[in-house]
Amino acid sequence: MQQQSRSIITNQIGLHQNLTKVVSRHLKHPSQKPLSAHTQQAFQVAISWLGDWQGDLILDSCCGVGESTLNIAKAHPNARVIGVDKSALRTDKHQAYASTLQNYLVLRADLNDFLRLLVLYDKKLTKHYLLYPNPYPKSAHLQRRWYATSALKDMLKLGGILEVRSNWQLYIQEFSAALSIANVSNKIGVFESDQAITPFERKYWQSGQSSWQLLANLYLQQ
Length: 222
Known about the structure:
Layout: H1 19-28, H2 37-50, E1 57-61, H3 67-75, E2 80-85, H4 88-91, E3 104-108, H5 111-120, E4 127-131, H6 151-158, E5 161-166, H7 169-181, E6 186-191, H8 199-206, E7 211-217
Parallel strand pairs: 1-2, 1-4, 2-3, 4-5
Antiparallel strand pairs: 5-7, 6-7
Helix pairs in contact: 1-7, 2-5, 5-6
């Protein structure tokens, strides 16, 4: 029997007091961090795999073991889908979910660097999934949350439809506020479905926890 998931525990009440300051700074100043060698290698694998592909491109960020990537590929057979996760321990487990589908790829890479490289290569997304990323619920860890990092600026440049899900409502509310700071309209609400597409999603639902969803049209940012 699968172990139940614990609820989010946080010392933060409401939106973080430094959210606007941190998000605004990252939107103004691009990252100067050197690109990691392993991510550059993984990106070249992705570029070779894509070849001269001109169709829909979907990114599954923080894909974990890649179950979500596979499910997204099944739901979008006419698109190319790339799943990215920083943990080799997780991506190596994808073999347990792998199929004969040819329209998806799971890679181990630093997402910050991978997004920057997509922008540098002038790639555009039709859809970008960010499903159940680590919410870093401690108030002191605000700048570890994706919307409070330099990655947000690259997400906006890549365009497409952004879909974020979390079992922590405040994470979705802060993501929404961060997008509003960037003048991006979005909508949030409870997400419900008959079928979970990630191990975390399945675990949360079996534990009686709700999923919260954010949707934003980033085509307007291109």
